[in-house]
Specification:
This is Pyridoxine 5'-phosphate synthase. The protein is an alpha/beta fold and 242 residues long. It is 49% helix and 17% strand. The protein has one domain (3-241): TIM Barrel (Alpha-Beta Barrel). Bound molecules: 1-deoxy-D-xylulose-5-phosphate (DXP) and the ligand NCC(=O)COP(=O)(O)O.
């Protein structure tokens, strides 16, 4: 079974737009679990433009399923994760000014740094995952670092799948990920995946990536929720206005 962890960054983006507490991030997280999601993911960024560090702390007592915190392991992030002790920490090499995550780790160049960080988190009972591109060499090195899992960075799959005009092109879009998953399994790593996954592309991905333990989905899932909820809410307003 592949678990669905819902990334709630966009709920915080919406809340922050008005400076108040609507929507209430904690209530939304709880409801998402109530609706069946098997995890909650957040990605606090240094500028706190969506998830705030205090949100990460407050969610600890709210999330009853799997709590996954993603981010670049600078000192502030490491301290936060060690304080909150989520189920899983996902290490992402994103630049301070990045609009969104845009690359996986180079596990060869950053070997010693990642080994150190992974070992700190594991000593504190926190499962680790390293965000990577679908490359065998990178994944083999991730295993040597000692991480429990990798998260496959799926932007390239989502982009190619959206432009695929035939079944063959769809298979071409996923083939590096199929191979990456086989390598990860061979070297004993658990496999997560995320970035730009959506209702359109998730089934094909799941069907072609063996041993996929978990996907974290945020941007598309929140957009889809708005769209599929819009007609319902408009009608609720119309009923009140009649
Ligand atoms: C790690 C990753 O792929 C992300 O998708 C990320 O968590 C999304 O972050 P933003 O919501 O800031 O774009
Ligand atoms: N780890 C990926 C994630 O949490 C959500 O990414 P996206 O669906 O917002 O692109």
């Amino acid at each position: 079974m592949t678990k669905l962890s819902v990334n709630i960054n966009k709920i915080a983006t919406l809340r922050n737009a008005r400076g108040g507490n609507m929507p209430n991030l904690l209530t939304v997280a709880s409801d998402i679990e109530e609706f069946g999601a098997q995890g909650i993911t957040i990605h606090p960024r240094p500028d706190e433009r969506h998830i705030r560090y205090n949100d990460a702390r407050a969610l600890k007592s709210i999330v009853k399923t799997e709590y996954n915190i993603e981010g670049n392991p600078n000192k502030k992030f490491i301290d936060l994760v060690l304080e909150v002790k989520p189920t899983q920490v996902t290490l992402v090499p994103d630049a301070v000014d990045a609009i969104t995550s845009n690359a996986g780790w180079d596990t060869i160049k950053n070997f010693d740094f990642l080994k150190d960080v992974v070992s700190t988190f594991k000593q504190n009972g926190i499962r680790t995952s390293i965000f990577v591109d679908p490359s065998s060499e990178i994944i083999e090195n991730a295993a040597k670092i000692g991480t429990d899992r990798i998260e496959l960075y799926t932007e390239s799959y989502a982009h190619s799948f959206a432009h695929a005009k035939s079944e063959i092109e769809k298979y071409n879009a996923v083939k590096l990920f199929t191979e990456a998953a086989k390598t990860a399994t061979k070297v004993g790593l658990g496999i997560n995946a995320g970035h730009d996954l959506s209702l359109d592309n998730i089934k094909f991905f799941k069907d072609n990536v063996p041993n996929l333990l978990e996907v974290s989905i945020g941007h598309a899932l929140i957009c889809e929720s708005l769209y599929f909820g819009l007609e319902n809410v408009i009608n609720m307003y119309l009923n009140k206005l009649n």
